Amino acid sequence: MSEGPPQSALRAAGPVAGALLDVSTVLAIGGTLIFAGVMLLLVLAVRRRSGTVNTRWWLIGGGLVFPTVVLVALFFYSEWHRPPWRPVPPANALIIGVTGHMWWWEVRYRDPATGAEVVTANEIRIPVGRPVYFGLGSADVIHSFWVPSLGGKMDMLPGRVQHLQLQADRPGTWRGQCAEYCGEQHARMALHVVAEEPAAFDAWLAAQARPAVAPAASSPELERGREAFLAHRCNACHTVRGVSEESRLGPDLTHVGSRLHLGAGTVPNEPAQLAAWVAHTQQLKPGARMPSSGERIGHADLQLIAAWLAQLK
Predict the structure, then answer these.
(1) C-alpha distance from residue 158 to each of 124, 136, 143 (Å)
(2) Which of 20, 71, 236, 302 shows its CA 20 to 30 Å from the CA of 114?
(3) Above 50 in pLDDT, residue 2?
(4) Which residues contact 115 (CB under 8 A, 6 or more apart)?
């Protein structure tokens, strides 16, 4: 799956981002015209050799009438064009909970078929054309949720739930980023939002609600990978539904093989990169809560674990 265009607020992909982009463009153009006008008046004043200036009219016009007209016009324009924000979610909204951790994202959905909670990490999937109402919180310090192509950003505060409504108008993948400095690996706290057609999204959510698919009996290599995952106590921090559900300290890995990246956008999610991530976590993302396991887990077991995790889709 393509990663889509670069992270940019100038590539609006939904009504919220479009409204913000339109208002920003009008402000930038208006500011440029005002600056150019002031510079023109400055040049004329410097070159003027004689005559008098009616300072009263200039003060009234430039200091009172002009800013009043401009500010009133901007107020009504921004009110007319503001994003479709509501204090409560629209009736047809998809509700997603996102919790910021140092330095990854925990994402929660509700399975419409069973009502069970579906937990993923570092990647958000949404249906095209449907408003998405986010409940945003933090497990440790202040983070900030920001996907520039879909809308504005919102701080994520410990002990408090903030809300943000976004929507994608077309299928695609957009990069987001924590927008509040939150520690050593703030710059590597990225996430990706994947917008799909409603039917594809429903199928994805139904698949995510199921436990991890057990390795086929004809694949002893994958079975050894599962055994190595448990033997080396990876399950002490990571949940894999249907295999281990002991801890939620780290990201839920139930369907980790279906995600685009590892380590919150640090490296692409490929089998070789997955093994390298487990072996050299601190070299790839210094300060992450997960230790490097290259010296603790042998090369053969690392490859087996990586192969088993990669097929969890």
Answers:
(1) 21, 10, 9
(2) 236
(3) no
(4) none
